[in-house]
Hints:
The protein has 1 helix and 23 strands. With 332 residues, the protein is mainly β. The chain has a single domain (29-329), classed as Glycosyl hydrolase domain, family 43 (Tachylectin-2, Chain A).
Amino acid sequence: MKYTLIKPQVFMLFFATLFTSSFAQKQNVIxxxxxxxxxxxxxxxxxxxxxxxxxxxYYWYGEQRAKNLDTQYRYVSCYSSKDLIDWKFRGNVxxxxxxxxxxxxxVLERPKVYYNKQSKKYVMYVHIDVNYKLANMGxxxxxxxxxxxxxxxxxxPLGFESRDIGQFIDDDGTAYIIFEDxxxxxxxxxxxxxxxxxxxxxxSLVKERIEGGxxxxxxxxxxxxxxxxxxxxxxPNKYSTATSLExxxxxFKDIAPVGSKTYGAQSSILIKITGxxxxxxxxxxxxxxxxxxxxxxxxxxxxxxxxxxxxLPTPQPFKLNVKTGETSIVKx
Length: 332
């Protein structure tokens, strides 16, 4: 019998293909801080994003930070999933060039999408800035969750500065936006107008210097959390509670051991999953890599929450059942 030696290059190519193919298979575990492949095997690019649920489908919108993007544009990506684990890339739903002749170094960050049942429009809010002094919100609109979204306007909500923004839909369906207002020494929680095309009412000015604001309503209490103002560097995220969005808000406390600096993550959104057996809340944060933004990771982890307490456990791989609301740690 004649044996044929396989060249090392062919051998390595085989295993590289096998490795990619294994990632392209259906995901069933969330691994905090690791590469998170979509259905095509590519690391998900949805940074600083938000989750919007339409019927039984979740849409994840975020900043597209892939390599070799056209620097004339800013992009918002979209992914869809039925289970919050296995995600399909739906394209860059917003491709936007310089709005209103801003300087070339303008930024678009923190996209959050709301579905308005009245207008049947999908309304995207973003942070638009130049040197972090413009401090504007921007709005784009689409007829479909997968876009394309069309830019409409930018503004300062209620006349206030706005940098990092967060998204919250209350249990009664009312839509709110959270935004950092640095000159006022804190952040604001504000209600959107009926058509979601404007910021209508300031609910609270919370005197805590945080960004990446996120809120969840759980068992009669509002939990609000965010990160400190340290730019790309991680810091201890903190939380507060109130019986009303108008406050008063309790003293802010750490959500994880101080020395962990929230395990390197910055808050982006809290995902509430109300299932047939349990209601779980997932902390969704970003682990930023400023010098390799395309490789920035995500830290998702079920929170320990209830009776005014909130804690982010040590990140571990976990499974999630969106039908029952149950989560389970995967032992390594």
